[in-house]
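Q: Can someone sanity-check these two? First one:
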Amino acid sequence: MSKFKAGQSGNPNGRPKGSKNRHTELREALKEDLPELLVTLKERALAGDMAAMRLLLDRVMPSKKQEANTVDIPELEEAESFQDKADAILSAVALGKLAPEHGVALINAIGSMVKPINVDVAIAKKVEEDKWDNMLGIR
């Protein structure tokens, strides 16, 4: 048996106005000591504490996100089948026109397009078989 009635909030008054979540309270508590904490963290990192170094670098200098690059692969536009498109991408990677990680991402994208098409083809084939079976009275 449920503690609450369906369609009725378990907290009808909601969160009290002006209340703060625990992260906000923690930030406010540390705000005053933050400069000293950063100095200590920096000193530990400079002394060889790898965890302090990683924390400092991850928070102060996060890794840069990759930017989208435009690559011209004429063979890709001319390719008619998914296999031809994958071959064009592999050729571009082999020739250094395309970074390997971008080639993998593109081939994975092609693969994700092929799966629904294969399902559609299988469904159409099954429907056609069922239609013939019904017409011939098999089943």
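And here is the second, same format, sequence then tokens:
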Amino acid sequence: MISEHSGLRSALCFLTMTLFCCASLHAQVKGGEQTGKSKPKLAHVYQNALILSNGGLHTVLPLNSIIYQPSKNQSNVVEIPSGKFRFWPDFLVKNQDWIYTFEVTLDQATGKKPIPARKIEEFTKLNRTVIATYRQNPISVLSSKTDDSSAEVKEKK
């Protein structure tokens, strides 16, 4: 009897948390204030994040999650969110034409192992914004202490 209800219970918990997060995020976006000519005060969810925007939609990414950014896509990284917020999976589906994801290991994300330089060079040929992911979710990537080859490729572009 318990196992029959555990699936339903899990689904209800997931739905409740999703609705709560959406409502909270919506309230935070609406709560952003602008004072005079200064930058608007953003809700805390946006303060330490990258904001991607395109086609009337936006999403948030962790800082340092963009591995490669071609100059043609610079305008998609914005300081102020506009349009409707979308969670990462939905935003990615709607923007696959200019976003590419690269699954990293935890050692690469923490900077213990570098992302191979040949991979970074491949990204430059894609001409798409490359987002580091871990288990299909965006993740920050710290610079490697052992190899600075990826930084050299970024600087060349």
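A (reply): Looked at the second one. Residues 31-35, 149-157 have pLDDT under 50 and may be disordered. Helices lie at 2-30, 44-47, 88-94, 106-109, 117-126, 149-156.
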